[in-house]
Amino acid sequence: MKKALCVLLSVVMLLSMSVTAFAADTKGAPSQTLPSWLPDDAPAPDPNSEISIVHFYINEDGETIVYDPETEVIPYSTAYGDAGTAAIYWVNRSQIYWGITSYTKGLMTFAGDVTTNRGGFYLLGDIEFDGSASGNIMGVTTKRGTNTATLSGFMIDAKGVSFTAPDVSSSLTY
């Protein structure tokens, strides 16, 4: 019954959006231009498409860096466990991205931390999520050589059952 209602609601929304799009008055409308925040070297949008994906990150100097994920790899690590997956990677020398995914359906709470081999300890406490949660840690201290960050923690479901999240580490050398 829920699926049928979801499908019906989706169809009604699609029809209402389609009617609105076709009824719009485009006379005198401003021309479509690229947003000002889009970097100059970003790939041009496909004119036959409504959606363009630009892969970018902000480096430690505050510059927007556009990259092609098929030719440039940002080092990341993913670990798979019985309860879900955990991922971590270095965005740049001072920023770490982390993510956790649960195989269990429904509301979960994650508690854990990210530690580095340079003495960094970043507490990730009582993060509620349904399916997955992620975030960025900025201002990470690094030194020349190999810098390693490790994500670890546990998840608790709505019934109070605890699951250990898989530990995962990623290294950055500079």
DSSP strand tally = 10
Q: State the helical fraction.
A: 10-25%
CATH topology of the largest domain: Immunoglobulin-like
* Total DSSP helices: 1
Low-confidence stretches: 18-26
Indicate the multimeric state. Answer: single chain
CATH architecture of the largest domain: Sandwich
Structural class: mainly beta
Q: What percent of residues are in strands?
A: over 45%
Instruction: Look at the structure and give the CATH class of the largest domain.
Output: Mainly Beta
Keywords: Signal
Signal peptide: 1-23
What does this structure look like?
This protein has two domains: 38 residues, no CATH class; 100 residues, Immunoglobulins (Immunoglobulin-like), CATH 2.60.40.10. It has a four-stranded antiparallel sheet with strand order 3-4-5-8, with no helix packed on it. The chain is globular. It is mostly beta strands and 174 residues long. The chain contains one helix and ten strands, in the order H-E-E-E-E-E-E-E-E-E-E. Keywords: Signal.
Short structural description:
It is built from one helix and ten strands, in the order αββββββββββ. The chain is mostly beta strands.
Give the SSE map.
Elements: H1 2-23, E1 56-58, E2 64-66, E3 76-80, E4 84-92, E5 95-102, E6 107-116, E7 121-130, E8 132-138, E9 146-157, E10 162-173
Antiparallel strand pairs: 1-2, 3-4, 4-5, 5-8, 6-7, 6-9, 9-10
